[in-house]
Predict the 3D structure of the following.
Amino acid sequence: MQIKVLCAALALLGAASVASADDLADGIKAWETQDYARAHQLLGKLAQAGNSDAQVLVGEMYAFGEGVAEDPAQAEQWLNKAKAAGNKDAPKSLLVLQQRQSRKAEIEFYRTAYTGDELAYGKHGCAAPQFPEVAKDPEETKAVQAKMAEWSECFKRFGQGLAAALPAGKLIPATLVPLMNQAELKQARATMDKAYAKMIGEGEQTKQQVIAAHNAWVERTEAWAKLVTQKSQEDVAKNMRANEKAAERVRSAARTPTGGSGPTRR
């Protein structure tokens, strides 16, 4: 509700009596503490008595549905009375009433239907890496890790977008907030908070899945590389043993006489 402190001060100065000034001050105080029933009771009497400031406030209560059922026709009636009496705040309140009515669909959207689709993970186009069974050479390893880094940056932007939207209600258009009553704002924030919690949960699940797939690929690749290294070492050892055997045969052949005449008898 667009009640101004200045409005209250002017009303007090221009009140017809001390009693009515006190009632107006008490009515405003009741509204500020959200005791809307008492506020309407006090301000309603003054409005009926012709106090234009009270008429503005009662009109706004009907416009926003605070303390009374929302009733745009009643709101307009009281505000027009205040305007006819020369109240300078009445035209502004009439404009707020018109704006609120013209944007009720937006208010209802944030109050009950907001899903935060504009912030969703899918809106960022983050392509989760496709991990091969193993990477068999440095170039393939480098390519897979580059894809993982690209996805990580994209996921980071998704998280930053959500963080920038908090606390819940921050993304409600600034021009719409003054047109909502306190209950509507509270409901909108709860709806938005629920939407954000869902996106955070889904994002965390996606992150864990990608990280798990990446870690599994790393383990497979490391295991494969270990086997390749082990086999290579075994092949080297086998070749070394074969070479040693061949060398030994050569040495044995060199030590063994290959022919010649026997000893001469005398």
In short: The domain at 5-102 is CATH 1.25.40.10 (Serine Threonine Protein Phosphatase 5, Tetratricopeptide repeat). The first helix runs from residue 5 to 14. The CA atoms of residues 197 and 203 lie 10 Å apart. Confidence is low (pLDDT under 50) at residues 1-18.
